[in-house]
Write a structure and sequence with these properties.
By secondary structure, the protein is mainly beta. 11% of the residues lie in helices and 42% in strands. The protein has an eight-stranded antiparallel β-barrel with strand order 1-2-3-4-5-6-7-8. The radius of gyration is 20 Å and the shape is extended.
């Protein structure tokens, strides 16, 4: 027991040393993307805290199921909400976007982000190819 106490004390004192330092990008970032090839702009809301990115993007044009009087196969609903996660790195960094959809239809995409002046530019790699310019606030 006497050997365990100094080890626990050393562990408690070492934890703050492993914490990530604040980055210049920390804060709330908001903005809207262009429509890209899909003509469906996204409203972005990202929070960056000590280099950890967490947020969402919402497609205001997404529609759910509609009545189908012709009894033909309905078009697949487009995802309306994307969850965005990643880590800030110097220069350009990568983010993961995962669609909030039901069932087994898992959709995900890659985003790249970089700071240009006071604007965080987020570009979709593949998919619709949208580009968003986000500002603090």
């Amino acid at each position: 027991m006497k050997k365990l106490l100094p080890f626990c004390l050393a562990l408690v004192l070492a934890v703050p040393a492993f914490a990530q330092a604040p980055t210049p990008l920390d804060g709330q970032w908001r903005g809207q993307s262009d429509g890209g090839q899909c003509n469906a702009p996204l409203d972005f809301d990202l929070t960056i805290d000590t280099g950890i990115v967490d947020g969402s993007a919402f497609d205001t044009t997404a529609r759910g199921p509609v009545p189908n009087p012709k009894k033909s196969a309905p078009p697949a609903p487009t995802p309306g909400l994307w969850q965005i996660h990643g880590l800030v790195k110097p220069g350009t960094f990568s983010l993961l976007a995962v669609a909030s959809v039901k069932a087994t239809d898992r959709r995900e995409g890659r985003l790249t982000a970089n700071l240009q002046g006071n604007t965080l530019v987020v570009t979709e790699s593949g998919g619709c190819g949208r580009t968003a310019r986000l500002t603090r606030g």
